[in-house]
Write a structure and sequence with these properties.
By secondary structure, the chain is of the alpha+beta class. It has helices at residues 2-7, 10-21, 26-37, 40-62, 66-83, 92-106, 114-120, 153-156, 239-246; strands at 127-128, 139-144, 147-150, 159-168, 171-180, 183-190, 202-206, 209-216, 219-226, 229-235. The protein is built from 9 helices and 10 strands. Helix 4 crosses helix 6 (92-106). The protein starts with a helix and ends in a 9-residue tail after the last helix.
Length: 255
């Protein structure tokens, strides 16, 4: 996908951005949409740009904390100069917000991000719930590269509802969905080395593991690493509840 972005001209990238945020002129829409429809790479690039637009709108609506603005100001200036031609139709304010969104959600533009992983956790399951592993009542019979999914049913009443497999910028990722009453959670584990940590999150250290809480895709989420694999827990729960589930039990962190 990053290769495709590099091959696009400034004008082509600007039109793709405009298509994503709904500002592309009507007389150009049909041609651009046809070009996107013929290219899976362009479709993926458009989808990522649409997610970036939603993230930017969320940041603008909620306001960017002053401390975060100060922390990324130097980086923003350099990135804004590189990104400005590609966001030419968005205006200077949107460029600045897009840069902040890129820094907060992914550690830099074009990188596979925690936000991409969280998006999987808000979708629907495509397979039945995995069964428990053994008789301990702590693990499910499913994992990613040696990192097991927890079984929350006995301890917390969150029962596995189903699973889904997907990809985060080329990396395999698995989601197990849990339910409790009318509430639902998605627990995502991404294969490969850990994704860049989101710099705008609220950090909490529990037993020497750092958990970062932030709002992604309109929902509260916690992200952390187990065995250097990125995990994301997102859904209808309080911050305290998400942290309790994410950090339980200690024996699940490595195996």
């Amino acid at each position: 996908m990053s290769d495709m972005a590099a091959r696009l001209s400034t004008e082509e990238m600007a039109e793709l951005c405009a298509l994503a945020d709904g500002t592309l002129p009507a007389d150009r829409r049909a041609e651009v949409e046809a070009r996107v429809a013929a290219s899976p790479e362009l479709q993926e690039l458009l989808e990522r740009q649409r997610r970036a637009v939603l993230a930017t709108q969320s940041l603008v609506a909620e306001g960017v904390p002053a401390a975060l603005q100060a922390a990324v100001e130097a980086r923003r200036r350099g990135q804004a100069r590189r990104l400005a031609p590609r966001f030419a139709l968005a205006g200077a304010a949107a460029v600045a917000a897009a840069v902040v969104a890129a820094v907060v959600l992914s550690g830099g533009p074009g990188a596979p991000s925690v936000a991409d992983a969280a998006r999987l956790g808000t979708q629907q399951p495509t397979a039945p719930a995995p069964p428990p592993a053994g008789t301990t009542g702590t693990r499910l019979a499913i994992g990613v590269e040696g990192v097991a999914f927890p079984d929350f049913a006995r301890a917390y009443g969150w029962r596995a509802l189903g699973e889904r497999r997907g990809r985060v910028d080329g990396r395999a990722a698995t989601v197990v969905f849990y339910g409790k009453g009318n509430r639902r959670l998605g627990y995502v584990i991404v294969a490969g080395a850990g994704l860049p940590r989101p710099s705008g999150a609220q950090a909490t250290v529990i037993r020497r593991v750092e958990y970062q809480t932030l709002r992604l895709n309109g929902r509260l989420a916690v992200t952390w690493r187990r065995g250097d694999r990125t995990c994301v827990l997102i859904g209808q729960a309080t911050r305290a509840e998400l942290l309790k589930l994410a950090s339980w039990p200690l024996s699940l962190r490595r195996r």
